[in-house]
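User: Hi! I'm a student and our assignment asks us to look at how structure tokens line up with a sequence. Could you show me two examples?

Assistant: Happy to help. In each example below, the sequence comes first and the structure tokens follow. Example one:
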Amino acid sequence: MALCYLVHQERIMRLRSIIFVETVIDQSSRKMEIKPGIYEHYKGHQYRVIGVAKHSETLEDLVIYEALYNNEMSKLWARPMAMFAGEVEVDGKITPRFKFLHE
């Protein structure tokens, strides 16, 4: 009986894995577009999106953006497009990581 339970659990885990992979493939096949302009990060700072570049090794789309405040670490930043366009949970609420403000 215990062996049947373990086999059943293993099948469920494999199915979940397949569903997850299919979901990731579906999301990555959609064409995302990030237009240049001013965006606000969910923590409050503003950034100017310069454009989208390709990673030289993986060809992943990277959003290139500039801090519009005095950031001692760096003025220019790069973030994977899917992450830039993604959502985060803040105080139990889902919100965009970056919100477009204007061109």
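Example two works the same way, sequence first and then tokens:
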Amino acid sequence: MYRAEIARALNAAENEGWPSSQRWKEAAVESQTAQDESPNDVMVRYGITRVTVDYFHYRNFRYTNAQDAITQARLEEDFRARSGENAYCTDSGK
């Protein structure tokens, strides 16, 4: 997909004398050969694990911690009470 761009970047790095450019080329070749493997096989080989994450959405924000979402909602509620607003603000802030 981006092989041409990667190759140009690696050649530029090599021309500038970057010591790791050869390793990046090797990694690119390894990546190419790994395309025949399923993603799960590659994950097992490298010890990569998948973790399910719960997200808590409040307005336009996404939190990974429910307490953070609740805190934000309460802060906004307090702000509205102090400013005299009775209704919740829309996501656009209008």
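Here is something you could point out in your write-up. The mean pLDDT is 79.
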